[in-house]
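Anyone up for a design puzzle?
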């Protein structure tokens, strides 16, 4: 009887939390449309109407197809608005309920899930992942992929890889094996020694998590993230309901690229979500909900410094002091920087026709989420971050967020 009462109480808490999140999101919409001032990290403010005008001007100048932006003050949404088109060819407007390709924001949601499993002691951050598997890793394939781990045969370093290394991108794996000349998976440096962004690392952690729990990624995401956060329109696999209203990506000429219909869930990049849903997730995240203080701290504090000139491409292998002023580093699932206003942690997403960015300043309890379905979207990120929350510390060159005027 006590167990049943506890379950009911927990369920009620979740319902109340979801209701409060919905109310706070609604309040944000009301404030953004009725006016009000938005507080920036440096203490300055901007009128909601002024930010609205600035966003429209930036989009017009840079030819950005569609955009969603939410600004958080006191870790709650105070300005949330969509702009432009979900599908330019049909002039379908972007809305808070439009289904969006989540790109690498998939990793941000997955990290949040994993850290809850760490809290439950179902997985440890520093235990070699192979120790959790009932059979040799080389016998596994990634779910739904015609790719195996046999490529690693002869290189015993894979036995050193941990969950921490997967989440802070220090496994030594390439981003994806299909980017390699021979399409094979290999370890390119000693695991744990440097940062090199890797979707393959997230794939491996997903394989192990699914083996440990006996559940699929989609089932785990629903249990630990989607349902608790009230994300009724989010999934790591395609849902027929998305046909009611989805966005497609657009290239620099404003021509449509694609909306993914992924049938196999992967932690690195198959999330589909909406502005409303992601705002619910982000509100939970930045308030540290469902995580212990230690788990939240591990996730949003630097695990290892980032020294590369750029995140991707040839310059990702060349080190410099370019970002020493912000002490750029990787946390667990999130990049971390230091500013005069305290640390910030961020996650981005990028693919042909799409670009997303979310950054939070916990000491100031200020954050912003930007979602775009345009190859031109990232060209206004530098100005948009400065205008909306006073963020001039995001390493825009490292991210390749080259302003449209300089392109």
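Challenge accepted. My sequence:
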């Amino acid at each position: 009887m006590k167990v049943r009462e506890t379950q009911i109480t927990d369920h009620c808490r979740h319902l109340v939390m979801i209701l409060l999140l919905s109310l706070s999101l609604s309040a944000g919409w009301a404030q953004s449309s009725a006016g009000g001032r938005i507080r920036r990290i440096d203490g300055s403010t901007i009128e909601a109407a002024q930010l609205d005008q600035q966003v429209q001007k930036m989009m017009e100048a840079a030819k950005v197809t569609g955009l969603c932006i939410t600004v958080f003050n006191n870790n709650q949404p105070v300005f949330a608005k969509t702009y432009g088109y979900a599908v330019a060819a049909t002039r379908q407007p972007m809305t808070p309920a439009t289904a969006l390709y989540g790109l690498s924001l998939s990793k941000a949601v997955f990290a949040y899930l994993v850290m809850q499993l760490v809290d439950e002691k179902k997985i440890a951050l520093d235990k070699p992942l192979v120790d959790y598997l009932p059979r040799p890793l080389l016998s596994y394939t990634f779910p739904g992929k015609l790719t195996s781990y046999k490529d690693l045969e002869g290189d015993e370093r894979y036995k050193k890889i941990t969950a921490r290394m997967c989440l802070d991108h220090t496994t030594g794996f390439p981003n994806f094996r299909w980017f390699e000349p021979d399409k094979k998976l290999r370890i390119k440096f000693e695991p744990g020694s440097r940062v090199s962004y890797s979707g393959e690392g997230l794939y491996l952690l997903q394989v192990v998590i699914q083996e440990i729990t006996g559940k699929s990624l989609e089932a785990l995401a629903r249990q630990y993230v989607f349902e608790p956060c009230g994300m009724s329109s989010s999934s790591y696999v395609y849902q027929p309901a998305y046909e009611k209203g989805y966005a497609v990506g657009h290239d620099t000429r404003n021509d449509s690229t694609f909306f993914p219909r992924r049938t196999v869930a992967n932690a690195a990049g198959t999330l589909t979500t909406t502005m409303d849903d992601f705002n619910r997730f982000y509100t939970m995240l930045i308030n540290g909900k469902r995580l212990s203080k230690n788990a939240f701290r591990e996730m949003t504090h630097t695990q290892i410094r980032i020294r590369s000139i750029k995140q991707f491409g040839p310059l990702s292998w060349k080190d410099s002091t370019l970002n020493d002023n912000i002490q750029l580093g990787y946390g667990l699932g999130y990049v971390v920087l230091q500013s005069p206003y305290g640390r910030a942690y961020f996650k981005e997403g990028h693919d042909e026709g799409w670009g997303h960015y979310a950054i939070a300043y916990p000491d100031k309890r200020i954050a912003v989420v930007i979602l775009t379905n345009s190859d031109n979207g990232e060209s206004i990120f530098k100005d948009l971050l400065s205008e909306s929350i006073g963020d001039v510390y995001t390493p825009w060159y490292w991210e390749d967020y080259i302003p449209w005027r300089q392109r």
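A detail worth pointing out: The chain has one domain: 2-406.
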